[in-house]
Amino acid sequence: MEPVPEDWQRGIVIAAHPDDIEYGASAAVARWTAQGKEIAYVLATSGEAGIAGLNPAECGPLREAEEIRSAAVVGVSEVEFLAHPDGRLTAGLDLRRDLARAIRRHRPDLVVTLHHGETWGPGMLNSSDHRLLGLATLDAAADAGNEWIFPDLADLDPWTARWVAVMAPNGSHAVDVTDTVEQAVASLCEHRRYLEALSDEPVEVQARKQIEMVTGPIEGFEAERAVCFELYTFMG
């Protein structure tokens, strides 16, 4: 198990919904911002369909505000929302184009996205938005470096990231987050209204359980707490 390279300066994290990044990836982000790296968040949706009983027109702005506060806890000040419909992400060129535009604009060395497999584990389905967003991010990372795929992005110079890291079980690389677990817990706690709708358990208890679940020791990697990624590069 190799460490995720850290000889870079700019990164972006691309996710489907507010709160997605906070289920583990934020622990790595907190480590990187403490090193002085510049990280931005790009969210495909505003999570407006994410709270039962709360109208999307009210829910969307609330969840955007929660995400902005959550990002600030781990040192991220730039958060953008692409306004694709929550729960109805569509695989296709519109999403790829918007993500490629974001990659060209931010010009990251590292693009991070989240697990997009069919399941989280036995009997636990992953959502359609997560699956589509992850694959679209991999495609968009390649698209961003090709001047011909989206000629309407010609106002932004092509850009190819050095790596794409997908947070995933059983990945090839890991990040030591031993010193940033508490920041990750605090970051997830900022999604207070969302977590309150999920369970009667106190928000702080929910957040700690979730972070502890995804930041345990990893076989073959010397760290008390770590998160796992699959690391990709592009040949062209």
Automatic annotation (TrEMBL):
- SUPFAM superfamilies noted in UniProt: LmbE-like (SSF102588)
Q: Which domain of life is it from?
A: Bacteria
- GO MF assignments: hydrolase activity
User: Gene3D superfamilies per the record?
Assistant: LmbE-like (3.40.50.10320)
One Pfam family, short name please?
PIG-L
Q: Supply the alphabetized keyword list.
A: Hydrolase, Zinc
This enzyme's EC code(s): 3.5.1.-
Q: Which InterPro entries match?
A: GlcNAc_PI_deacetylase-related, LmbE-like_dom_sf
Identify this protein by name: PIG-L deacetylase family protein
Species of origin: Antrihabitans spumae
